[in-house]
UniProtKB/TrEMBL annotation:
Record-linked PANTHER family: BNAA09G04570D PROTEIN, BNAC04G53230D PROTEIN
Keyword terms: Membrane, Transmembrane, Transmembrane helix
InterPro entries xrefs: DUF247_pln
Residues covered by region (Disordered): 27-46
Species per Swiss-Prot/TrEMBL record: Senna tora
Pfam families assigned to the protein according to its UniProt record, in alphabetical order: DUF247
Statement: the UniProt record of this protein carries the keyword Coiled coil: no
Superkingdom classification of source: Eukaryota
Entry protein name: UPF0481 protein
Transmembrane intervals: 469-492
Amino acid sequence: MVAVFNKELLSWYLITLKLKETLESTIPTSPYSNTRSTDFPQQPTEPLQITINGEEDDGQTLQEQEEEASKSPDSEWVISIKEKLDQARQDDAASSWSKLSIYRIPHYLRENGGDDKAFVPQIVSLGPYHHGKRRLRQMDRHKWRSLHHVLKRTNHDIKLYIDSMKEMEERARSCYEGSIGLSSNEFVEMLVLDGCFVLELFRGATEGFKELGYSRNDPVFAMRGSMHSIQRDMIMLENQIPLFFDPLMPTDEPLTKSDRNKLESSSFDPLSDQSGLHCLDVFRRSLLRSRPEPEAPRIWIKRRSHTHRVADKRRQQLIHCVTELKEAGIKFKKRKTDRFWDIKFKNGILRMPRLLIHDGTKSLFLNLIAFEQSHLDCSNEITSYVIFMDNLINSPADVGYLHYCGIIEHWLGSDGEVADLFNRLCEEVVFDINDSYLSPLSEGVNRYYEHRWNAWRASLKHNYFSNPWAIISLVAAVVLLLLTFAQTYYTIYGYYRPAG
């Protein structure tokens, strides 16, 4: 048994030596080693091939592989940055910012509006932003009907319109903010369909839909029914198409002088100003016809605001509220003009045009403000007016007094709803009070307000001359005071100068 055990032990010893010889012949001698084996002759060696997960490496050392592995996440990160920069370069080269005119609603206005109905179309989609939405598809068949009427009336071939829009596709796409997820054919079809639909509405409003071949009972092309809702959708900033009239004008004849006169007399006359960017821009221009030229603001405003300010009454006040101005003796009177923004102040009287507020006023003002906030080449008259009204109205009592003066007429549920509407319209809107056409007027009002004599006179009038009985009481009190003074005088006089 001992002999057998020793024999097996000897075999294991020989196998171990053979393994050692094999390993030493394959592993290169380390340059940092102070010892090397001399038991076995040195043989030519090859780099050790290490197999990891079934694959052989390419001859790199472990240290090199570890360094490459540690760098690989950074390499991917750098590649990702370069790809993003390359995309930015392509976007910058392909974009024409000068043509941008149709924008998404800024998030701060969308949040403060509190109601998507003020920004999102409810009846008809125009342009790519809301194109294809399920609840708006019902109007598509009426768009196709309008295109059919145009082709039938003009005897044009549809290919003429398609080719015209194909040539303008790139220009039209550059009018929109952000990328458009429609193919070339889808985008061109949308332009033709929506463009003809809008032009039919324009012509029907000026010439009459019956003259264009529509039935008097037409569910869409008649001045009744859903037309009011369609018009509201047409002045939403996200629901616009660029107004390129010439390629889509469904007539072979130019507009006559009579047609021009009709259009100019209309309250919404998009064809009267073909330089308009889209329906909302043209509508805004019609509101601001003969718009006011802002005067240079005076020093007192410059001291109060040197940079762009947020139009929040907690941070800036262009003018005091109605109640405070009344206490300072300022009167409010209705001004007879249809230009609601044209406000005047003279000799302590603030003259303001009548403003009608209905269920569409919020949407109208919000979209106009959004356009003025977004478009670089747009002035800020509407924003200035709304902020001025926001400053004037702090409470339902302010609304009630303006209603009493005939300045505000509203169809809302209460004066409180009107106050809330104006107080929320311009929350967090970036606005420079130096750039308001109402700044000089506000300066005059505030100067009058700060004069103490005006406040004392107003208080005296309010407390003692507000009604006939108060006047009689005041006169009686004055007479009584004079009689008392006379009695006191003669008593004292008689005491020192007795009758002699």
